[in-house]
Design a protein that fits this description.
The chain is mainly alpha-helical and 383 residues long. It has 16 helices and no strands. α12 packs antiparallel against α16. The longest helix is centred in the last third of the chain and has 33 residues. It starts with a helix and ends with a helix. InterPro entries: MFS (IPR011701), MFS_dom (IPR020846), MFS_trans_sf (IPR036259), MFS_Transporter (IPR051788).
Amino acid sequence: MVIYLAFISLGLPDSLLGAAWPTMYIDLHAPIHFAGIISMIIAGGTVISSLFSARFIDRFGVASITTFSVLMTALALLGFSYAQHFAFLCLLAIPLGLGAGCVDAALNNYVALHYKAKHMNWLHCFWGIGAAIGPMIMARHLALDRSWSSGYNTVGWIQISLVIILLISTPLWIKKTREQQAADSPETKSSFKTLLNIQGLKQALIVFFCYCSIEATFGLWGASYLVFERNFETDAAARLVSTYYIGITFGRFISGFIAEKLSNQHLVYLGQGVIVLGLIVLLLPFNVTLLPAFFLIGLGCAPIFPSLLHETPRNFGKKHAQAIMGMQMASAYIGITLIPLLFGKLASSLGYSSLLWFIGLILAIKIYMTYDLNRKVFSRTSK
């Protein structure tokens, strides 16, 4: 439960910016596409901390790194609530991203080592709980005519309470960590060039890149699409975006139960199909269909990321799994870093109605690369 709470803390800030930005950019006197810059800085910090997290974890332990990382995100969010200039937000986005990357890398690896596959889905389900609660908190503050800064302040203090829980729970981690150190065997380390020659890895990196590009872009710009293309009020748009994250959360909860009935590959294909259905519903010119559309897109996203993570040892072997896991996470965060910013620039010229075909194009690439990955893995393992 402590690990699940830590992943709530990881999800809380991820959805705040998209929900608050239609109001924030006016108060900050910033161009609307500048949300992509903040998102890029956060994701860039996450890439860096993910790549170096193993060294810090080896030295300080999972519990200490997780606690310190959540504290970094809490202080950054509290700083957001007092920032009056866009430049300050950019500076605060650095520790926000660095903290998030360490938590993500540490806990994904920890759960993969110590818990069953269903817990991987439920772990990311709790991320979805945090991501769904964030816009709800922001929407409540906006509906009461409070500033977006008060929403960030509330989430910052929630993070502080999670830091206290992590500090209290530190002894619970010690035994598991010692058991892991005793069980670990020397690992053959390969260069990135050698790993990239493994059949199917390039496709896997593109799949991770595309999936996280879809999830992050829709989460960041979904509210702006509703405000500027469907004439929603900002608080109503924020509440509807929370439905997207509720879909992710609910889907991952259900996926934890059906993971033993369906293979990871089938769950990924099923999720992609549901996203396609959600985009089709979103194209309909009726406001009444927006709620199910946002929910369906989130529901489709739900099983993809956990299933891809859990499939890594089967796809590439246990010997290289940890190194490849890091490469996949880095590729995912690069997508989060670049693609929301790219869409922000594109939408400033073409309008926010382009969100649907933009997401659809990336999804088409992902569907093909998923098929190609599975084909190449089957070809290699069947020899």
